[in-house]
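Subject: design request, 460 residues
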């Protein structure tokens, strides 16, 4: 089988993408090419890459080993975008995942003050000078958040000033065939002298919604569980938290367990659940948890409580009881100007407990957003069935957590969660490969966005 044919079949298998006939239909330039997340679906749609731009050496290595040398010897390695003066003539499509750190919390939201944020000006410069027929750019959702609204509006206005009709949308990868909750901004532009330049429409979500066990090979033999339906009152009492998202149904047990001493819920695992503690000790811990955010104890989002504070909430409380929880490394004592106060040792949500933040069950609809820096998220290698929240938590601890039936996300797992095909060759270093997939774009999202673009304008 030819490599091109195997590429097509793998894409169909992974992302449920329609198989199209081969033949070049358009040409494109791959800016900020990374490891090729844009290139794979564009070639599937009949695109031919004329050149690529990337500065990360490890990403270039992976890109070249997967794409360069396959009857495309005339393809240009463009190098650093800041040094590109001229692109090949008659470009149909310019694409790229412009560095996202300047617009993310992890990147300190520096925007155009970050040197990477200024790379948008090079994108605009190349668009203006070369006037490709169209473009597709991707970035983090934060680019379109209210905090960055002025900068985002500036970019859109610049695209319009250099003769492009522009549309944008926040798209979740989960809606396009991969079990990953990944929201990204996509910007599509069509040169305004082309017919239908203002008629582009983003694709509608797919009906195909795979679960984790459908794409992660090591858990594909796990039993598929039909979850029991429960009244919301059974799960939440009289108050359903407003923070629940689309993947947390109000009448079903969650598909994941979160390790946190700062939250409470039917699938929250606390440090006092993991070691031997008495009912009284559990009561003290839950009392601190429920009251730490009350304004009477301080202005912070979470406040330490003094012995006096706790004594008002817990009858007959003794300091020795708090000391015992300190010995068990559940609480710690801190000093302020007036008194000793107590807070949880595990005082940051994302830090989790015992180096675990979340564990997702095989039948989960999704994993959270893959990132370049990685997370403390794990996948359970066994399913559980329960008819009550109490039984569910006990089964998780006894059958999954204690026997350590969990696995970290491998680079190969990450590739599947991004929709990359089986034939794709990963970087030889596991950590580097995971970082690269965290930075990549989801294959099927690009496929469907580009497919609609091709159907909107005539590249011939």
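Subject: RE: design request

Done. Sequence follows.
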């Amino acid at each position: 089988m030819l490599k091109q044919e195997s590429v097509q079949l793998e894409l169909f298998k992974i992302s449920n993408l329609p198989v199209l006939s081969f033949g070049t239909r358009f040409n494109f330039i791959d800016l900020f090419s990374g490891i090729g997340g844009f290139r794979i679906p564009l070639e599937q749609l009949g695109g031919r890459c004329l050149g690529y731009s990337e500065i990360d050496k490890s990403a270039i290595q992976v890109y070249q080993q997967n794409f360069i040398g396959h009857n495309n010897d005339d393809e240009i390695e463009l190098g650093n975008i800041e040094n590109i003066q001229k692109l090949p003539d008659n470009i149909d499509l310019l694409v790229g995942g412009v560095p996202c750190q300047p617009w993310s919390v992890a990147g300190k939201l520096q925007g155009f003050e970050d040197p990477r944020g200024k790379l948008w000006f090079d994108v605009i410069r190349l668009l203006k000078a070369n006037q490709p027929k169209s473009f597709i750019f991707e970035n983090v959702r934060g680019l379109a958040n209210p905090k960055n609204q002025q900068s985002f509006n500036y970019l859109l206005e610049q695209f319009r000033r250099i003769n492009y009709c522009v549309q944008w949308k926040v798209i979740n990868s989960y809606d396009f065939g991969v079990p990953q909750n990944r929201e990204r901004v996509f910007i599509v532009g069509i040169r305004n002298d082309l017919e239908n330049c203002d008629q582009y429409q983003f694709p509608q979500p797919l009906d195909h919604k795979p679960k984790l066990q459908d794409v992660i090979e090591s858990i594909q033999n796990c039993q598929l569980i039909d979850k029991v339906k429960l009244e919301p009152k059974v799960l939440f009492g009289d108050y359903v938290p407003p923070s629940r998202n689309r993947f947390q149904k109000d009448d079903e047990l969650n598909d994941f367990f979160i390790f946190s001493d700062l939250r409470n819920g039917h699938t929250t695992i606390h440090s006092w659940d993991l070691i031997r503690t008495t009912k009284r000790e559990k009561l003290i811990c839950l009392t601190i948890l429920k009251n730490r955010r009350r304004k009477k104890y301080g202005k912070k989002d979470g406040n330490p409580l003094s012995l006096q504070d706790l004594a008002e909430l817990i009858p007959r409380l003794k300091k020795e009881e708090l000391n015992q929880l300190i010995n068990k490394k559940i609480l710690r004592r801190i000093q302020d100007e007036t008194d000793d106060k107590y807070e949880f040792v595990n005082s940051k949500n994302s830090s989790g407990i015992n180096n675990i933040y979340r564990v997702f069950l095989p039948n989960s609809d999704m994993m959270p957003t893959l990132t370049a820096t990685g997370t403390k998220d794990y996948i359970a290698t066994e399913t559980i069935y329960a008819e009550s929240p109490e039984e569910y938590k006990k089964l998780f601890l006894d059958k999954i957590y204690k026997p350590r039936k969990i696995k970290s996300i491998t680079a190969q797992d990450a590739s599947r969660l991004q929709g990359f095909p089986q034939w794709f060759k990963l970087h030889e270093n596991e950590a580097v490969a995971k970082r690269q997939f965290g930075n990549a774009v989801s294959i099927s999202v690009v496929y469907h966005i580009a497919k609609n673009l091709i159907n909107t304008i005539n590249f011939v």
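Residues 3-210+419-456 form a domain with the Rossmann fold fold (CATH 3.40.50.150).
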